Amino acid sequence: PPPLLSVRDLRVHFPTEDGLVKAVDGLSFDLARGRTLGVVGESGSGKSVATQAVLGLHSPARTRVGGEVRFEGEELIGAPERRLARLRGNRIAVVFQDPLTALSPYHTVGRQIAEPYRRHRGASRREARERAVEMLARVGIPRPRSRHDDYPHQFSGGMRQRVMIAMALVCAPDLLIADEPTTALDVTVQAQILDLLMELREESGSAIVLITHDLGVVSGFADEVLVMYAGRAAEHGTAREVLGRPRHPYTWGLLTSMPRLSAEAGRDLVPIPGAPPSLIHPPPGCAFRPRCAYPKEVSGPLECARDRPEAPPGHGPACHLEPARAEALFAERVLPR
Ligand code: SF4
Ligand code: MG
C-alpha cells in the first residue's frame, strides 16, 4: 500500500512586490501510518508553508503550488475544495501555535469540538455533545461536563491548547499536524502538552507531523526528523541518526545553538552566525554556504558555491561533504565544545 503521506518535489512560490518568494522549493518525504515526524528549522525555513500546502491551505493569494502531495495515494494538490474539506478536521487535522486565532470567541468550546464530529460523522447533537465531553476529559480538562459550556477566553493558554487538541482529535484523524503547538506556552505547560500528544498518539495510532524551531522538542518525541533550510530538506533521518550522528553543518548549528540541548550536553551555546538567506534571491549552490564553516572540507568535483546539494532519496543530508569526513568533523569540532 502507498505511504500515508507522500510528498514529492513540493514547491510553494508566491509573488511579492520584491519578486517571487520560493518558500518551499523542492521538498520530498514519506510518512508511514502511526509514525511521528519532527520538522525542524528556523522561522522562514518553509516548514509551516509546506504543511499548509499538504492541507490545501495555501494562502497568500496567487500562491503557486507544484509537485505532489499524496495522502494514501490520492493527489491533494489541485484536488477540489470540496474533497479537501472532507479530509480536513476529519482524517487530517491541525493544531496551531495560537489557539485563540483558531478557536472562535463566540462559541462554547464544547460546540466547537462537537462541530467537526457532527459534520464529518453525521452525529446527532446529543451524540456530538457526549463526544465533546469525552474529548475534554481525554485531554485532561478538569470537570469536562461543566467546562463544556465555557468560552475559549475562560481557559488558560495551556488549557486552550488542550481544547485545540481535543478538537483536532475528535474524528480520530489518521494524520495530525501540530504546528509549533507549545511555542506560546511556558516550559512546564509545554512539557505537559507534549506528554499529552505522546499519550494520545499511543491511543489513537495517528501519524503526527510536529513542526518546531526547537530541535530539543523533537528529541524523545519524533521517530524521524526532517531539518529544513531555505525551503528545502537540509537533512532527513531517524531521530537517532539526526540527533546522534548528524551529517549536515546546519543540523550541527541547531544542536549547538539550542539552550536546552547545550545545557544537557554541558556545552557552551554557539549561535549559528549570519541569517537565513533571501528566498527571492537565494545564494547559488548551497543555500547554507554563507553561514557554513566547512566548504573547504569538501573534496570531489562538487562545489558549495556552485552546485546545489540534493538530499538523497530517503535519509541523508543535502551536503557535499563526504559521509566519513562529515562524521569526523562532527566528532572533532562540534561535539567537544
Ligand atoms: Fe556547508 Fe558545503 Fe555542506 Fe553546504 S554543501 S552545508 S556549504 S559543506
Ligand atoms: Mg511557522
In brief:
This protein is α/β, with parallel strands linked by helices and 337 residues long. 35% of the residues lie in helices and 21% in strands. The model has no long low-confidence stretch (mean pLDDT 91).
Topology:
Elements: E1 5-16, E2 19-31, E3 36-40, H1 47-54, E4 64-71, E5 74-75, H2 81-87, E6 92-95, H3 99-102, H4 109-121, H5 125-138, H6 144-147, H7 157-169, E7 175-179, H8 187-204, E8 207-212, H9 215-218, E9 224-229, E10 232-238, H10 239-244, H11 249-257, H12 259-265, E11 316-317, H13 323-334
Parallel strand pairs: 3-8, 3-9, 6-7, 7-8
Antiparallel strand pairs: 1-2, 1-4, 4-5, 9-10, 10-11
Helix pairs in contact: 4-5, 4-7, 5-7, 7-8
Bound molecules: iron/sulfur cluster (SF4) and magnesium ion (MG).
Iron/sulfur cluster binds at residues 248-249, 286, 288-289, 292, 294-295, 298, 304, 309, 319-321.
Protein name: ABC transporter ATP-binding protein
InterPro entries: AAA+_ATPase (IPR003593), ABC_Ni/Peptide_Import (IPR050388), ABC_transporter-like_ATP-bd (IPR003439), ABC_transporter-like_CS (IPR017871), Oligopep_ABC_C (IPR013563), P-loop_NTPase (IPR027417)
Family: Belongs to the ABC transporter superfamily.
